Prior knowledge:
4 copies of one chain form a homotetramer.
Chain A (H helix, E strand, L loop, with lengths): L8 H12 L19 H8 L7 E3 L20 E6 L1 H6 L8 E3 L1 E7 L5 E3 L4 E3 L9 H4 E2 L2 E2 L12 E7 L1 H5 L10 E2 L1 H11 L8 E4 L3 H8 L11 E2 L4 H6 L4 E4 L17 H10 L2 E4 L4 H10 L3 E5 L10 E3 L3 E3 L1
Helix pairs in contact in A: 1-9
GO molecular function, one term (chains A, B, C, D): arylformamidase activity
Protein name (chains A, B, C, D): Cyclase family protein
InterPro entries (chains A, B, C, D): KFase/CYL, KFase_sf
Amino acid sequence: MTAxxxxxxxxxxxxxxxxxxxxxxxxxxxxxxxxxxxxxxxxLAGAACIRRGAVFSLAQSFDMNGPQKGWRRRTNPVHTMxxxxxxxxxxxxxxxxxxxxxxxxxxxxxxxxxxxxxxGHIFDHGHAWNGxxxxxxxxxxxxxxxxxxTAAARIAGRGVLLDVARVxxxxxxxxxxxxxxxxxxxxxxxxxxxxxxxxxxxCVRTGRLARARREGWNDYAGGASPxxxxxxxxxxxxxxxxxxxxDTWGFEVRPxxxxxxxQPLHQVCIPNMGLFIGEMWDFDALAADCAADGVHxxxxxAAPLPVTGAVGAPVNPLAVK
Amino acid sequence: MTAxxxxxxxxxxxxxxxxxxxxxxxxxxxxxxxxxxxxxxxxLAGAACIRRGAVFSLAQSFDMNGPQKGWRRRTNPVHTMxxxxxxxxxxxxxxxxxxxxxxxxxxxxxxxxxxxxxxGHIFDHGHAWNGxxxxxxxxxxxxxxxxxxTAAARIAGRGVLLDVARVxxxxxxxxxxxxxxxxxxxxxxxxxxxxxxxxxxxCVRTGRLARARREGWNDYAGGASPxxxxxxxxxxxxxxxxxxxxDTWGFEVRPxxxxxxxQPLHQVCIPNMGLFIGEMWDFDALAADCAADGVHxxxxxAAPLPVTGAVGAPVNPLAVK
Amino acid sequence: MTAxxxxxxxxxxxxxxxxxxxxxxxxxxxxxxxxxxxxxxxxLAGAACIRRGAVFSLAQSFDMNGPQKGWRRRTNPVHTMxxxxxxxxxxxxxxxxxxxxxxxxxxxxxxxxxxxxxxGHIFDHGHAWNGxxxxxxxxxxxxxxxxxxTAAARIAGRGVLLDVARVxxxxxxxxxxxxxxxxxxxxxxxxxxxxxxxxxxxCVRTGRLARARREGWNDYAGGASPxxxxxxxxxxxxxxxxxxxxDTWGFEVRPxxxxxxxQPLHQVCIPNMGLFIGEMWDFDALAADCAADGVHxxxxxAAPLPVTGAVGAPVNPLAVK
Amino acid sequence: MTAxxxxxxxxxxxxxxxxxxxxxxxxxxxxxxxxxxxxxxxxLAGAACIRRGAVFSLAQSFDMNGPQKGWRRRTNPVHTMxxxxxxxxxxxxxxxxxxxxxxxxxxxxxxxxxxxxxxGHIFDHGHAWNGxxxxxxxxxxxxxxxxxxTAAARIAGRGVLLDVARVxxxxxxxxxxxxxxxxxxxxxxxxxxxxxxxxxxxCVRTGRLARARREGWNDYAGGASPxxxxxxxxxxxxxxxxxxxxDTWGFEVRPxxxxxxxQPLHQVCIPNMGLFIGEMWDFDALAADCAADGVHxxxxxAAPLPVTGAVGAPVNPLAVK
Lengths: 321, 321, 321, 321
């Protein structure tokens, strides 16, 4: 494990970025990053995990009761009706023969609730994934190169739940500010008796969402939280996983581990490693099932909504056991 | 097959609604309708269809280049950026150590592109699915009973592509106004050598989308189109399928088959039968693959985005073969 | 002045509604309510108040830094860019000869910031202004009868600032929960040496906004606040004013004066009296000027943005002295 | 009048920009441009035009029936309800004592309907008004310098209607592609017997909107249209008017007068001259009144909705005669 110098974020980020870079690994034109690891054989390995036919949604709700408070103009999703049953029942809609209809619309930041970060979401010193200039990739017209639609038909494969909260945490929840290290990840893997490797989609449960459910959102969005340690960058790189998601707002531990930094693990993982990161997922129902039957692997279908040019996208991930 | 009296839509709709009603079939509190057919064993049957690990997205794009023209205030999705790579590269975002970010937001009718109709989308004489009063179900606050979130963790199972366009159509496309009958469906099933039954998710390809791709959207949204005949209501009911989707705007044939009617098959299927209907799906890549390998069944994961209270929801369906 | 029985809101509201009703006063088809008082001669009286050519905007800001917290799905306005100067400067917009452009879009509840309540905003026992059934007036398609566009070309006339905060309040601010009575209004009128009458647009300053500016929004939207007493209903009716606005979220005192009620003065004034009510206006700069020169009357141009069918509308009111 | 070389837009734009530049005229920090001409005395001159108390709204509608077709992601305004009278009448809103309510929300491009262009709307070779770099002014966070809120308390003054359509046009409408020259403007001024000068707000009627009303929107937004000739730049500069508006989508004649150009007069007027330009105004009712009484001057209150950082803003302009 890398020793962390809290006073040198710039140097630490640069070193990790260099160590974990995948630029050029899949050619100059690549837009998929670590999804390249999720090939047909990896997907078949996932399919082999379907044994009972049970299914779990890993999505949080998409509504006004979410955790967003306006940071970066991220509001909660606002859902409004274009037509209602009340109007239909009253008979004023104008359709023939008793037909009535309801229709609706949503306004939402694409990272308001359960989502995948796209490869255009984060930049490092003005560069995006694979070494492109940030301004060549994401303009006001959206992500012209690595828009989330490029990942529309990829993300279905073998999912592994690492319930770090249950294995490591006191009372099944990690405290805010708890940095999950490679040792914690490995201990959880050992405790679960699973393997994690090339092309897998890793789901790390911290218990932060369960706490928010019990105590209210409070500062769930952007505040203190357990999460991945900056020092896991190498593990994330060397395992050759295809993607990783947590039940927290920010994936990595908050506050971040440097005296002055903002989401430094993102800065390493997204533009340099090309890693797909999921945030605000809900593993609680799945985790209860995994704890009950001792099986922590499953087929995971988590196709992002293909909003053209999006740098992140909402998703309703399904875990099938 | 029911003979269709074009001059008596009111009577025909009432008769079909009565014949095909599932009200009470799964209890007075049911909110799932035909998704009840999609149980764990049906899901396992779907999983058994994964043989190669190949995956296909069945979603159309979500952007301003879509077919919507404003009917029922349905616009195309409007995607705007909250932060861009151009800004990040210029260095004015204020993050430390070279971090830059992009973020985005979308405004979209929930039925703007590839979607599932929820059970609160259509009413029959002021009644919603399972006999509830429309105004008790869908108000300005959304669908309080059968909101699409109730289907969040269900729709993964065995998919079957019925490429009616390729089997029946001249040149692999059905003409606008072509009503697909039970006979056409059965002929396609026979030609493909597949079975369709309880709990399946049926994908009916008409070729309408391929034509729009070639010739422009024109009146894709709401205009003339091939689609299911009103007379298929009994087949849809008796097969006990869990859901059905087409590559058209409106699922059923347009113009509708009565002299004066609006989407009469919807009126039978959604509030009376409790059937899940998908619209504006894209089967073209999948269909080419099925034609090539002769295998028309697959695992289909098609979880709607769980916007709380939605009467329809966007989806990125994944077919895995 | 009516004595207020705090335990009988239902009776008190009914009595005030009856006493102050203007139903039928301007014919069965009327959609303007008290704006009927604002005729050409009243407008000329306003024009006569322009003496220096000084102008004051009475609008609060329209942005994410506003007071909304999600009640009734009211968010703050979300403003996003469709094109930026950063993109233009970088040269990637594709316009010829060095032209660059910026464009933008807003999503906002119509009552998110400075606004007029339309006559379709509030109902009394299922009835809207002038005795119409609420469901005949405002459906999912908006206000089909009294939409704010009907008031598009009316609201310019004589404005009068009643700086109750400065006249009555300790330290120039009324405390939260302070109910402004007819006596307070009359005392302020006398102190200012102005008149208030038929067709006037009355601006009541409570100082609540100044406090929010100093101390933060806190519960500005919906929380405790000074405001009009329920007992002013008769004064509002008998003066024949055309409209009235305050610098608070809710116009009337909060908490409301009955043990169990919600905005009872609204219930009397909007559907029964047909009164135009403005909320979340900013009188602070104007009030300072009026205090300095002792002149509390002015020309007020406060045309709502004519969103067709709106039950409320944002406005940038201009006071010209 | 400048002779126009249709083959040299680059040179012509540069020459006009240099000739008409106001950079530095009001200091390096100026954000108001030509609104500096609209001082208190100019405003008093406007007030003196109020003689009858008649008022006219110069706004078009804000709804889905507008002309936008998606260019630059500009849709028509989408207005949806958060609460309705139908729900209120049905009694399910949960308010006490018979209170019911309706609320609404809008999503709209800020230049969807009647609007003012802000000074950050157009750039010339990467520079914004007063010589600032475009990327220092308008980022994804909006216009940080000349946002429309800086003009919130200015635009009330003397309006002059130049009904060029009625004076010059055959049948009271200018044909599409008709370039209004300085000579046409002067002839209209002479025919009306008015003056135009420093600080005035000039309203130029082309009749294009009347034609759209009669024949449908067709290509109103961006298509062929009468409008100001590029050659009027000097007149716009030398008259020292505060602002100018037309009843067209694009202010200047369409197609533009160069073989290859896009809105070249904008490029001169906004970033170089600092001129406020209004588009999609509706002068028809006002024009009929002016034709009837022969008076073409009035008080014009046209305060833009102060969306913080907006590069354009909707407005409901009121003309008071």
